[in-house]
Amino acid sequence: MSKQRKNDERALKVMIAPALVLLLGALVPFMRGVWTSLTNSKLYSSQSNSFIWFENYRAMFANSIFLQGLRVLIIFVVSVLIIQFILGITIAHLLNTKTQFTKISRSILVIPLLIPPVVASLLWKTLMWPTDGVLNWMLSLVNLGPYQWLTSPTTALFSTMIIDTWIYLPFVTIILLSGLQSVSQDQIEAAKLDGANSWQIFKYVSLPWLVPYIFLAGLFRGADAIKTFDVIYSTTRGGPIDSTRVLHIQAYEEGFRWANAGSAMAIVLFLWFVVYAFSNTVIRFSKLRDNRGLVS
Amino acid sequence: MKQKGKQVRIASVLTAAILLLVGCSSNSDSASTDTAGGDFSWMQAEGSEINVLLVSHPFVDSIEPLLADFEAKTGIKVNVETLAEAQATEKLLADLSTKSGAYDVFMTSPLSNWQYATAGWINPLDKYLENSSVTDVEAYNVDDFFPGFLGANKWDLKPLSGLGEGSLWGLPINSESYLLAYRPSVMKEKGLAVPKTYKELIAMAGTLGDGKGSRYGLITRFDKYWDLPYLTFGTMLASYGATLIGTDGKVAVCSQESIDATNDFVSILKKASPAGAGAFTWSDAMQGFASGQYAMAFNEADLFAPTYQDPKQSKVTKDIGYAVTPEGPAGRKAGTWLWSMSMNSATKNEIASWLFLQWVTSPDVMIKTHLNGNMNPVRASAWEDPQVAKLVDSWGETPGQYRDVVSEMGKVAQILYPPHPELTRALDVWAGAIQKTYFGKGTAKENLCSAQTEITKILGL
User: Fold this and answer.
1) Domain edges within chain B
2) What residues of chain A lie within 8 A of the CB of B422, using their CB?
3) DSSP code of residue B64
4) A239 vs B435: CB contact, 8 Å cut-off?
5) Which of A171, B98, B286, B291 is deepest in the core (most CB within 10 A)?
6) Which domain holds residue A105?
7) Which chain B residue is nearest to residue A133, measuring alpha carbons?
8) CA atoms of A9 and B423, how far apart (whole Å)
9) Hey, which residues does B334 pair with through a beta bridge?
10) 3-class DSSP state of B183
């Protein structure tokens, strides 16, 4: 047994070695990024690579554009989560039946997930073109619009939320649908026998079952939304003015337009911290809920 | 047997030594700065392979059909990657800053080169031009370039000065200045003459559209990036006497001239452009005018003319005229833009890269690209070529109109602001202030003065 145990331990070490190598591969650039964020590094100048402690972070928090970007990001994340979960639960509930229509609908539902986000964003940009876009034309048929969509500071952020929802709603819906399909049929039958209507069955039987799935989808979508870049960069590039200039856009501009590596890394690390804190909070809350036996 | 083995070993060592020497000499691909002759040969880098990064632009369509000629002439394989301007700049920055040498040669501009040259990421090209073993000096005829265009690619690396001096960092492939493109039928219908001053343009701006939304007055680019105060709106700024750095050496973005120009520009756009005008890129402006939706393209690039005149891309080919930009309080001034080609200092194919640069900017290849839609010529011989003359003479409301306008604008066009590695950022901030004014977030004075403070910090003044 001792020899067996030694063999097992050796096998374990061999199997986790690749994972450790990958981890090192991720840690080294991460630590390098932390170091860069503490310097005044500019890519085009070898002379500007001095250690300046937390000056980049101080300047970042004192910068009104950064604070505006943070505000825009919070609005974007909270809004898309609310919109996508309300719509996601609604659509999942509607698709939670076994008919030919729902079978076809489920196939159509995944189409946005197959299109690269940048391509989808550019398609929507064309649809939303203010002077001759299809969207304004369709709205004009019912005497609505025209709207500026992505070209006005007052509507640009909302327009990007529409695009983000179109792309990622299927992801949320599929997770919630799988949750709904795991609801115990016995409990539903029992509720019906007790005289519960559809809404009461959904509220008191299905929804509690869905909570872990909501946490799961919320964790992924929330982290994604905090890091959002492709939808916004493809359509507005952070404009008009700074109405959609979320933090990832700012980091990209600092690093790739203006070659300010130090400032760019400071923003990226701040974003990393936000995603980490968000994910940790969701997981802890989910575990707390489990420990309290709130899962039926 | 032992003797035979010894002979084989000696022969092997000698063979290896010979191969090593031959290999070293044939693999070496760097240009000696010794200008004392060697016969030039286009095949001297045969077997090499180079990677070229191009920016999505009519130049790309004009050069791609010719690449096979280069490959046949030199035996050098060319791999071309074409990206939209923003993406190309950003991907190039990643390559240059890491010195990976993924791209040997790339399409760039003096503006970007201020940063690249400061960082040592591009090779100065003077040494190749002067070296007759790598350049067919007579056929290349460097004096055929318009001095201003070649000079715009020279800089001595001193921030905010030294333009036209020092090393040559790129070779120009086309030149651009700005003009009015208009629809003669619309002007006639409205009983309007082409505006000669900005005052006249402001007066007629509200009447250029049809008022129904199917045709608007004018279009110009207006996204919040450097090209706005540097090129198109920069042309108007200069005509009002506004500039980036004043005569006192301080940032002058908030001068009265700049405020007046900004207010007038916003006024023109609000009267004559659709509500989404505050976010139009240069591509939107070019395609918008070509689609026939606008009566005028305002201070837009003259090198959009090949697109306007191409029936496959434009609905206005038979109804288009060209005019010089309006005069402002400081007369008629204009910006200029040069696309150029430069060499990555991390290239592992120096000679092959230089041969490509030499070929693509040579007199006969340049003429072929102009005939394929790459405008405007940067060499005197190209303008004198009968085929180029015949092509452009048909452009405009009257024969030769386009050429006359370009020639006239060429007398006033200049690189508007002095070199600085942070010039792009400074101009982005300026553009943001103009855009804020358009959208009513503060007055022109408030926004420009705020921008001036920030730009002063950026430029280190």
Assistant:
1) 49-176+337-384, 178-335+416-459
2) 258
3) G
4) yes
5) B286
6) 56-291
7) B276
8) 60
9) B413
10) coil
Q: What is the CATH code of the structural domain delimited by B49-176+337-384?
A: 3.40.190.10
**pLDDT, tens digit, 9 for 90 and up, residues B297-339:** 999 999 899 899 999 999 999 999 999 999 999 999 999 999 9
d(CA A258, CA B52): 23
Non-local CB neighbours of A125 within 8 Å, separated by 6+ positions: A150, A234, A235
Question: Hey, how many other C-beta atoms are within 10 angstroms of the C-beta on B27?
Answer: 8
Q: Residues 136-175, chain A: which have Cβ within 8 Å of B?
A: 146, 148-153
Of A149, A241, A257, the CB nearest to B441: A241
Taking an 8 Å cut-off on Cβ atoms, the answer to whether A240 and B224 are in contact is yes
B419 touches chain A (CB under 8 A): no
Q: What is the DSSP string of A205-233?
A: IIHHHHHHHHHHHHHHHHHHHHT--HHHH
Give the count of domains, chain A. Answer: 1
B89 touches chain A (CB under 8 A): yes
- Nearest C-alpha in B relative to A151: B276
Q: Is B342 exposed, middle or buried (0-12, 13-18, 19+ CB in 10 A)?
A: buried
Q: How far apart are CA B441 and CA B447, in angstroms?
A: 8
Q: Which among B94, B119, B276 has CB closest to A148?
A: B276
Cross-chain residue pair B435–A240, CB shorter than 8 Å: yes
Among the listed residues A121, A131, A103, the one whose alpha carbon sits nearest the alpha carbon of residue A165: A121
The candidate with the shortest Cα–Cα distance to B340, out of B49, B59, B93, is: B59
In a domain, A182, yes or no: yes
CATH topology of domain B178-335+416-459: D-Maltodextrin-Binding Protein; domain 2 (3.40.190)
User: Which residue of chain B is at minimal alpha-carbon distance from A261?
Assistant: B97
Q: Closest Cα of chain A to B121: distance in Å?
A: 8
- Residues B59/B306, Cβ–Cβ less than 8 Å: no
**Gap from A258 CA to chain B (nearest CA, Å):** 6
Task: State the pLDDT at residue B38.
Answer: 58
Question: Is residue A121 in a domain?
Answer: yes
In this prediction the ipTM stands at: 0.84
Does A220 map to a domain?
Answer: yes
Confidence of residue B1 (pLDDT cuts 50, 70, 90): very low
The pLDDT tens digits of the residues spanning B379-429 come to: 999 999 999 999 899 999 999 999 999 989 988 999 999 999 999 999 999
| CA A25 vs CA A18, A29, B211: distances in Å | 10, 7, 61
pTM for this entry: 0.86
Cα torsion angle, B90, B93, B99, B102, sign: positive
Q: Do A257 and B441 touch (CB under 8 A)?
A: no
**Chain B interface, best mutation among A230, A256, A260, A265, by max B CB count within 10 A:** A256
Partners of B275 on chain A (C-beta within 8 Å) are: 130, 148, 151-152
Q: Give yes or no for a contact between B78 and B356, defined as CB atoms under 8 angstroms apart.
A: yes
| A-chain residues near B277 (CB < 8 A) | 151
Establish, for the pair of chains A and B, how many residue pairs have beta carbons separated by less than 8 Å: 78
A90: CATH: 1.10.3720.10
Same fold, B49-176+337-384 and B178-335+416-459: yes
- The tokens for A294 are 């709130």
A167 and A120 Cβ atoms separated by less than 8 Å: yes
The answer to whether B308 and B317 are in contact (CB under 8 A) is yes
Given B121, B274, B278, which is nearest A131 (Cβ)?
B274
Q: Is the Cβ of B279 closer than 8 Å to some Cβ of chain A? A: yes
